[in-house]
Amino acid sequence: MSRNGGAGTVHAVPRWQDCPDLGPADLAVVFDVLRASSAILAALAAGVRAVLPVESAAAARAVRAARPDVWLAGEEDNLPPPGFQRGNSPHEWGPEAGGRDVVWSTTNGTRALGRVAGAGWVLVGALVNRRAVARAAAAHSGPVWLVAAGTRGGWALEDWLAVGAVAALLDPARWSDAARAAILAFRAAAPDLPAVLADAAHARRLAAQGFDRDVAWCAALDGLDFVAARGPDGWLRRAADLPLS
Q1: Which of 11, 57, 115, 165 can bridge 81 by disulfide, Cβ–Cβ 3.0-4.6 Å?
Q2: Nearest-CA neighbor of 45 among 240, 233, 188?
Q3: Span 10-238: which CATH code?
Q4: For residue range 94-139, what is the model confidence (pLDDT) as tens digits?
Q5: Residue 239: predicted pLDDT
Q6: In the predicted model, is pLDDT for residue 240 greater than 70?
Q7: pLDDT digits over 127-154, tens only?
Q8: C-alpha–C-alpha distance, residues 62 and 44, integer Å
Q9: pLDDT band at residue 245, thresholds of 50, 70 and 90?
Q10: What is the 3-state secondary structure (H, E, C) of the chain?
Q11: Distance (Å, whole) CA 92 – CA 70
C-alpha cells in the first residue's frame, strides 16, 4: 500500500500486512475487534496498569521468565496458551487485575501492533472506544493510519467496519478513498451492527468455540471513553497516563 495523500490524510488499511513502513509523523490505530483490541481495553478499564504486546507466546513467556510478576494473556487458535493467566476475552478482567502489568500475545492483533512500531503514536482502537479514538485522531495534524488487523492473512469484516466507524467521525476533507470505502461499509452495517458482526466469519468461529458473549460485547459502540496508547517503553497504557503530543 502506498503513502499517497496529503500530510493530514486519514488512511484505511484492510490488513496489517498491507501497511507501509510508518514514521515519526504518523499516528497509527490498530483494530482487532475480535478480540485483542477489545480485550486489551477491557483489561485497562479493569485496572491493569500496562500491557506489552508481543508477537508470540514464546516471546511472552520469555518476558515472564525475566519478570515473574507479570501476567500473560492472549490466544492461540482463540484459546489461552498453556501457562497463561488469562485468555483473549474481555470478560476475564476484574478488580483482581488492578495494578498488574500484562504481556499479551495473539495471532493477529499484537502482530499488527508490531507492524506499526515505526509510527510516532500508536493507539489501540475498537468499536467499544470509537469516539475516544476519533477524538485523538482528530487532534493529530499529521497522517492517520487506521489499520485493520484482519484474520488468517485475510480481511476481517469487524475490523474494517471499526475503521469506518472511526473515520466517519473525522473531517471528510481528510478522507482517503480507502477511508471512504470503510465509511460506506460501516454506514450500511450500522442499523444492525451487532447482527452484522455476529455473522462475520471470525465471529462465527468464536461462537462455535463458546465465545458468543465476547462477540456481543465487542460489537457495542462507545462503551469505553479512553484510548490505549504506546509509551516510549513500548507498553500500552490508558492515554490519560501518557502525552499524545
Answers
A1: 57
A2: 240
A3: 3.90.1560.10
A4: 999 999 999 999 999 999 999 999 999 999 999 999 999 999 999 9
A5: 86
A6: no
A7: 999 999 999 999 999 999 999 999 989 9
A8: 22
A9: very low
A10: CCCCCCCCCEEEECCHHHCCCCCCCCEEEEECCCCHHHHHHHHHHCCCCEEEEECCHHHHHHHHHHCCCCEEEECECCECCCCCCECCCHHHCCHHHCCCEEEEECCCHHHHHHHCCCCCEEEEECHHHHHHHHHHHHCCCCCEEEEECCECCECCHHHHHHHHHHHCCCCHHHECHHHHHHHHHHHHHHHHHHHHHHCCHHHHHHHHCCCHHHHHHHCCCCCCCCCEEECCCCCEEEHHHCCCC
A11: 16
Amino acid identity, residue 102? V
- Start-to-end C-alpha separation, the chain: 26
Q: What residues contact 112, with CB distance under 8 A and at least 6 apart? A: 16, 19, 30, 32, 147, 149, 150
Computed over every residue of the chain, the mean pLDDT equals 95
Query: What tens digit of pLDDT does each residue of 55-99 get?
Result: 999 999 999 999 999 999 999 999 999 999 999 999 999 999 999
C-alpha cell at 233: 517503553
